[in-house]
Amino acid sequence: MTKVGRMKLGSQGLEVSAQGLGCMGMSAFYGPPKPDSDMIALIHHAIDSGVTFLDTSDMYGPFTNEILLGKALKGGMRESVELATKFGVNFADGKREVRGDPAYVRAACEASLKRLDIDCIDLYYQHRIDTRLPIEVTMGELKKLVEEGKIKYIGLSEASASTIRRAHAVHPITAVQLEWSLWTRDVEEEIVPTCRELGIGIVSYSPLGRGFLSSGPKMVDNLSKEDFRKYLPRFQPENLEHNKNIFERVNEMAARKGCSPSQLALAWVHHQGNDVCPIPGTTKIENLNQNIGALSVKLTPEEMTKLESFASADAVKGDRYGSMLTTFQYSDTPPLSSWKAE
Q1: Does 60 participate in catalysis according to the annotation?
Q2: Whole-prediction pTM value?
Q3: Which of 77, 121, 282, 300 has its CA 20 to 30 A from that of 114?
C-alpha cells in the first residue's frame, strides 16, 4: 500500500499527513449519520494507514461529529493525530448565523474541547467570516486562546485575500481551508498566491468535487433525501447533463493511466504544490485506501494541462453553492474603525 508521507502545513511548525481525512460526511449533510462503530473503525484504519490529519467542525451534526471524534481518539489515539476543528456558524432559532465576536469564539472553543474530550485543539479555524465585524476582533480572541494553550494554531476557511492578510498581521495564520478541485479553481487567482506569499498552508476540501469526480453523474441517483448535494446547482439535471462530459474525460484518462478517476483528480490537487493538503472525506474503508493510492499517481506537466482543459471555467455549469448558502462564499470584513465593542 502507498505510504502516506508527512508535510509541513504553513510556516508555524505544524506537521500533518500529506493527505487528511474530512469527517463531515460521517455525521452530517451527506445523508443520515453513519453508525458510530463503523466510523470509529474507519478513523482508526485511517490513522493506522498514516492519515493522521483529521478535520471536523462544531457545525457538523451540529456537534455530533466532534463527539464521534472524541470517542474515536480514546485510548491513546489522541497523541497520534493532528486534529482540526472549526467555529463560526451558529444555529439558533432554526436560523444559521455566522459569528466571530470574542465571547462567542471563546465559548465555541470551550464547547469543542469538551465534546472532543481534549485539552488543546491542534488547528482551530474560523469556519466562515463574520462580515459584521473586523477580522482583527476575532483574531484578537483566537490569539488569547493560543496564549492560554487551548489551541496551537489558527486557521481561516473561505476567507478573501484581504481578510487573510489582515488576520495574519494580528497573529500568524497556519492554514487556509478552501474548496479546490479540478472543477473549482477560482481560488487560484488571488487566494492561493496570497497564502504562498505569507507562508500559509493550504487545505483543500471537496478535492473530489463532493464525489462527482469519483463516480460521475450516477452519484446523484444514490443520494438520500437528506443529502444537501441534491440541492447544489452543479447537481441539478440541467447542469449535470453538461458536467457529465468532464467526468467522462477524466475517467478516460484515468483508464489510460491505470488508476481510478478519483485517484487522478486527487493526484491533480497533490501536484499543486507541497504546501497543499487535500482532505477528501469518505465513510468507506475501500474508498479511503483508494484515496491514499492517489499519492503514488504521478502526473507530467502535459497531463496536468490536459486535465485542466477538461474542466475549464466555461466547461463547468452551476455555482459551488446555491442561494441557500449565500453566506458561504469568500467574504470580506469591514475595517476595524467601523466596529466598536460594547
Answers
A1: yes
A2: 0.93
A3: 282
